[in-house]
Amino acid sequence: MHEDEHGFYKKYDTLNDDFGNRLHTIYSASIIYTLLKIYDFDKDERILEGIPDWGDFLLSMQSKDKETRGAFHYSYYFKSKEKEPRFVVGTTALSIFTLLDLYNRTGDSKYLESAKLGGNWLTTMQRSDGWMKAYKEYKGGEWVYGEKKSLLYNGQVLSALSRLYKVTGEKRYYDAAEKITQCFTEKVEKEGCYLGDDYRSKNPISSAWVVMSLLDFYKINQDEYYKNIIFKCSGELLGKQQLETDEPLYYGTWDRAKGEFQHT
């Protein structure tokens, strides 16, 4: 974590003792979310003490500009004080996870209002067929969009919108979530539970995000159809887990889930 900005780095270069020159919103949101869950386990008061500063960094990364209002900048160059003009739907979605958790714990409406603004922007990034555009970025003097389909990003957005609807009851979030759900269920019906997308061939991480996000949607629409898909696909994923004891280093893992899994 940067001591002054209170945002989190993506990685640490041990050979060169270097954290890099920017802080990443998605890693900051994910680390805060993880620390909050750790607090639930061991009640470490240092975590609660960090909430105001961490929360303020996260809020500061939300765009107030008309063109991208509600979206979260991908990263922040702390030396030049510049925010990257790149807005990834997964970054905003995972920020919503954390903001809703912060709101639930503190009761501070600023976190809920920020989450809603993020959700509103996400609905503008949905294509007519229900799939999400991956990102919006200012590049070469114009706004460009990521048109590749990503199960990971769509899953993150589906979960975020489902959670927002559960808290707010605002129909716009449900409607957008339902469209992604339809995209997922149609894909499962056609291709099965082990899935890939425009970024990756079939792999367990993309497949797991379909299941996890459908579970969030099931919490707001308890249709048996969704429950059946959740159990069916969860079972198939478990069946692909490596349980051979002659490879102890990989016991319990999944093929194609090792190493860094990131969209660029």
TrEMBL record:
InterPro entries: 6-hairpin_glycosidase_sf, C5-epim_C. Signal peptide: none annotated. Residues 150-193 form the D-glucuronyl C5-epimerase C-terminal domain. One of its GO terms (biological process) is carbohydrate metabolic process. It holds the Pfam family C5-epim_C. This is D-glucuronyl C5-epimerase C-terminal domain-containing protein. It comes from marine sediment metagenome.
